[in-house]
């Protein structure tokens, strides 16, 4: 079916005259008449009949007008939804992050973004750095945030966006809770360590290697940052953890920061995307909404 002719016919039905349709569409009256006749010939039945100075719909014309009206209303709705998609107000937003940004940064960002783009469906996957990078590389995430320092493949572009730091912490009644201590002093105490492969564990050992000091041996080894922090709260030993993760525990008096004679270990958080792969509109809108919010 000739949709251009169908659109002209719909305007004829709406205005009640060929001249009215021609005026609304800014084309000549003969051109409208020719398209109407071609449509009737294509369909095999008459759509209009003369009535006074105008025209009226035949039974077939009335039926076709209803169908055309549904069709072009749907077209208008699709156009509106496409425009909303182009602006990043519709669609899916797939994010991935390691534990720290997933729990302490993304919730606030997503909440702010949802106020302006409630129709966007947001999904967040969390895991270790390797799992997060795999999701990004396999197109299961549009943007990823990774804590710590990692060697990234050339297919990933990384942008540092926030500088956290690692603190030594212990219960407030720990004997080293006051004063400034050396790494060697801390290493002699019972220590709670993360699992092998954890950035926190590797950063701790790197700190000790750089200082030329024997690193602590684990009194307890746990998987996951919250498990490690809770073990410290229960008095199982000293641990090293992200400032962002332990700040509330320190403020509440459940943990104390142990001061050392070396600068704190940097714990950078980076935003990662695929190199050479344009972001979908919802992801672009999300990043625009983050302007001034640490990435």
From TrEMBL:
GO molecular function ontology, one term from the record: DNA-binding transcription factor activity
Sequence ranges assigned to domain HTH lysR-type in this UniProt record: 1-58
The record's annotation in PROSITE patterns points to: HTH_LYSR (PS50931)
Q: Which UniProt keywords apply?
A: DNA-binding, Transcription, Transcription regulation
InterPro entries, alphabetically? LysR_HTH_N (IPR000847), LysR_subst-bd (IPR005119), WH-like_DNA-bd_sf (IPR036388), WH_DNA-bd_sf (IPR036390)
Asked whether the keyword Methyltransferase is assigned, the reply is: no
As recorded in UniProt, coiled-coil segments are: none
Q: Which protein family is it in? A: Belongs to the LysR transcriptional regulatory family.
Q: What is this protein called?
A: LysR family transcriptional regulator
């Amino acid at each position: 079916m000739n949709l251009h002719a169908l659109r002209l016919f719909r305007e004829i039905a709406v205005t009640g005259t060929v001249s009215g349709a021609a005026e609304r569409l800014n084309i000549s009256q003969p051109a409208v008449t020719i398209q109407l006749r071609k449509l009737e010939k294509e369909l095999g039945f008459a759509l209009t009949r003369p009535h006074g100075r105008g025209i009226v719909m035949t039974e077939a014309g009335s039926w076709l007008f209803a169908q055309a009206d549904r069709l072009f209303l749907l077209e208008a709705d699709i156009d509106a939804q496409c425009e909303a998609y182009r602006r990043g107000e519709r669609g899916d937003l797939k994010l991935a992050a390691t534990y720290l940004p997933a729990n302490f940064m993304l919730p606030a960002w997503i909440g702010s973004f949802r106020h302006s783009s409630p129709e966007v469906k947001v999904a967040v996957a969390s895991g270790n750095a390797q799992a997060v990078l795999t999701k990004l590389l396999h197109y299961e995430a549009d943007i990823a945030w990774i804590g710590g320092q990692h060697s990234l493949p050339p297919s990933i572009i990384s942008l540092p966006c926030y500088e956290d730091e690692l603190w030594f912490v212990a219960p407030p009644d720990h004997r080293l809770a006051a004063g400034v201590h050396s790494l060697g002093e801390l290493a002699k105490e019972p220590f709670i360590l993360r699992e092998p492969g954890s950035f926190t564990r590797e950063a701790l050992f790197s700190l000790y290697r750089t200082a030329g000091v024997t690193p602590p041996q684990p009194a307890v080894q746990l998987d996951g940052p919250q498990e490690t922090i809770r073990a410290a709260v229960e008095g199982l030993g000293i641990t090293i953890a992200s400032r962002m993760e332990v700040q509330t525990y320190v403020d509440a008096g459940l943990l104390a920061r142990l001061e050392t004679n070396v600068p704190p270990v940097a714990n950078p958080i980076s935003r990662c995307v695929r190199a050479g792969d344009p972001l979908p509109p919802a992801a672009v809108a999300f990043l625009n909404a983050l302007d001034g919010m640490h990435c």
